[in-house]
Amino acid sequence: MKAAAKAHTNIALIKYWGKRDESLILPMNNSLSLTLDGFYTTTAVEFQENLTADRFYLNDRLVEGAEYRRVTAFLDRIRQAAGRPDAFAEIHSTNHVPTAAGFASSASGFAALAAATAKAIDLPVNEQQLSIMTRHGSGSACRSIYGGFVEWEKGIKADGSDSYAVPIAPADHWDIRVAAVILSSAEKKVLSREGMRRTVETSSYYPAWVDSIPDDLAAIKDGIAHKDFEKVGVIAEANCLRMHATTLAASPPFSYWQSTTFSIMEAVQDLREAGVPVFFTIDAGPNVKVLYLPEQEETIRSTLLGIPGVHDVTVSRPGQGVSYI
Amino acid sequence: MKAAAKAHTNIALIKYWGKRDESLILPMNNSLSLTLDGFYTTTAVEFQENLTADRFYLNDRLVEGAEYRRVTAFLDRIRQAAGRPDAFAEIHSTNHVPTAAGFASSASGFAALAAATAKAIDLPVNEQQLSIMTRHGSGSACRSIYGGFVEWEKGIKADGSDSYAVPIAPADHWDIRVAAVILSSAEKKVLSREGMRRTVETSSYYPAWVDSIPDDLAAIKDGIAHKDFEKVGVIAEANCLRMHATTLAASPPFSYWQSTTFSIMEAVQDLREAGVPVFFTIDAGPNVKVLYLPEQEETIRSTLLGIPGVHDVTVSRPGQGVSYI
User: Fold this and answer.
1) Which of A162, A232, B55, B70 could form an S-S bond across to A223 if both were Cys, CB 3.0 to 4.6 Å?
2) Closest chain A residue to B241 measured between Cα atoms?
3) Does residue B324 lie in a domain region?
4) What ipTM was assigned to the predicted interfaces of this complex?
C-alpha cells in the first residue's frame, strides 16, 4: 500500500490559455510543452489502516487549509476509482521547483501524486488514464506524465475522457536548453487562474487566440520533428506574445509582465539581432524562460545575469516523464 | 500672397490605428483626441513671383530630400484647388514640439501649413475642408484643426470627402492635464507607418480592434460631456492597451514599448491603487502621456520624475484649434 514517484515540471511552447469547463479542467485549445529536467517533485504515498483522513506533508511541513483540501479532493477521485473510498494516506512530497523561478510546482506535484497514489492503492492505469487523472489536479500537470515534447489534446467530449497528453518526441530527441530567469522581486498581481477566466470572459481578442492555435501547433510540431530551432523559437515566442496580448484586451485590462520582464524580452531580441539564435516564452507571471542551443550557453547566461533586476538563472534540458522511485 | 498660422499637436484618447486607403490616408476607425496647448507649430507661407519651386525652412534650416518632397506634394493639392498650379512659395516653419516628447510634429505641422497656404493663395476653405486638406499630409493632423476634444470621422466614401475631424468639446470645457513623459533614450525601432501597415495586414487581433471602437467612442464622449474623469481615463487607457496588443499578434510580432515605458505604466497603476485618479496613453512609440486633474499636478510630476529612465516631464492643458497669426 505504498509507492513513490518523481515527475518533472514542463514549460508550454504553445500555451494552455482558457478553460471550456472549470470544474473538469478542460481547455479551450490544445497546448504543447517541453518537460524540463531541472525542476521536479518527488512524492511518497502510503495508505494506512489507522488513518481517518489524509495527511499531506510538503517539504516536511504538514499542510492544512485550502492546499490540503485540493490534495485530498484529488485523492478522492482515485480512491473512488479503486473502489476504496475509505482508504486514507500519508503523503510526503518534496518540491525541487523554486517558486521564484515562476514554474507552477502544481505541474510536477500533481503528476507525481497521481502516479504514486494510483500505484499505492493498486489501481492499474496506463499513461493516458494517468494523464486524465492528473489533469483534474492541475491542467498543465497532465503534460508532465511524458518526457520531452508533449501535446495536450483538448478533446471535445463533455466528460473530459478525451482530454489528455500525448508524447510528441522523447527527451533524447533534441538537446535544447531552457534558462529560467529568476527575478529579484516578482509579485504576481493577478493569479493565473483568475486572469485566465477574466480573459476568456471579457477579452475581445480571445476568440482569435483560440483560432490561431491549430496553425501554430502544426508548424511547431514540424519544427520539432526536423529539429529546426529557428522555426520552433519563432512560433513559441509569437504564441507567448499572442497569449499575453489577450490580457491587454480584457476588461479591465491587465498584464503579467513587470518592467524587468520587458528588459529580458528586449535583451533576447537584441541577442537575436546580433545573430544569436535565442527566443523567450513567458507563462502567466513575470518570469521569462529563454530557449537556446547548448553552444550558446555561456553567451546566454552572462547576458541574462547582466540585466538589472535578474537574480539568477537556472538551466534545464529536456526531462523524462513520470517514473516510480 | 502671404499668411501665417499656428496649430497645436494632439493626443489620441481613442487611437487612429490602421488605414483603409494608404494614398488618401483614410482610416479604418474613428478616433478621438485632445488638442494640447504645450506643443505647436507656427508656419509662414509666402507665394513669390520669382520662385520656380517651393522653398521650405524648418526651424531656420532649409529642408531637402524626402521631407521636402512631402511638403511640396502637399502644396500641389492646394495650388491645384486654387487654380494656381504654377505658384510656388517660401515656407518658414517652427516646431515647438520636442521630438523626444514622442509627439508627431507632423500633426501640428501639416495643420499650420494647410491653414497658412490656403490663406496665402487666397483659397477660401471652411474648417471641414481644411481638415480634409490637412489629412492628406498626415492623418492625425486633421484633428489639430480644432481645439479641445475632437473626433475624426473615418467616413465611408472612396474619395475621402467624408473623412474629417469634428469638434466634440472646446478647450475651455474641461481643464484636464496631460504630462508628456520624456525618456532618457527612446529609439523607435518600428516606424509607426510601417507598424500600422504590418498590423492591419497580419495581426489576427486587428478585426476585433476595429470592432471595439464604436463602444469606446460612445462611452468616452459621454464621459467628456459629463466631465467624468474616471470614465474617460479608464476608456483611454484600455483603448491604448488594446491598440498595442494588436502589434503583439502581428507577424512578426513587435512592440513600441521599452522597459521604461513599462515602468511608467506600472507607476501610474500604482498611483491609482493608492487612490490618485491618473491614467496613461501611449502612441506608436515608447513615450507615455499621463492624464490627470489639476489638483494632482505635484504628485504626478514628482512620481514621474522619480522613475529611472525618465528624463523630463512636460505638462499641457487643452489647446486651441488652428489660428492665423
Assistant:
1) A232
2) A248
3) no
4) 0.92
